[in-house]
Write a structure and sequence with these properties.
about 140 residues, mainly alpha, single chain, globular
């Protein structure tokens, strides 16, 4: 099973907002957090699957740069992590296989990167940027 075959547990809401490439990724996160808060901070607005993978990798990249997430965003990431099953769910997600967009090779998610512009999976053999101005995380 690839991560694109995962049934998203979060109906509409968070997943659809994060997976829509119309806005820069940080703006998508802000929209998802605001929607989640407006909906009462319940599980329906949280993310899973590819949307969670993107969110978690984005958070890790920010931490490596020394940036801290604001309180609501940090809570959103934490609650989404808990909703996918915590460490067990994260480990299971990383073991899923996907195909890189750059060469068509199959990899486990733990071995790929993700373009936060177009949300395509990329292997470490990528020769240059994916989408102009988009961050590559993973």
């Amino acid at each position: 099973m690839t991560d694109d075959q995962i049934t998203d547990l979060a109906p509409e809401g968070g997943n659809s907002l994060l997976l829509d490439p119309a806005l820069p990724f940080p703006e998508r996160v802000g929209a998802a957090v605001r929607s989640w808060e407006a909906g009462g901070r319940g599980p329906a607005g949280l993310v899973d699957g590819k949307a969670y993978f993107a969110l978690h990798c984005w958070e890790l990249a920010a931490a490596r740069r020394g940036e801290e997430l604001d309180g609501p965003t940090a809570d959103y990431v934490r609650r989404s992590y808990e909703a996918i099953g915590g460490r067990t769910g994260w480990d299971a997600l990383l073991r899923l296989r996907t195909t890189c967009a750059c060469h068509g090779d199959t990899w486990r998610l733990e071995n790929v990167e993700l373009c936060l512009g177009c949300l395509r999976y990329l292997c470490y053999q990528l020769d240059g940027p994916c989408c102009e101005g988009a961050e590559i995380v993973g």
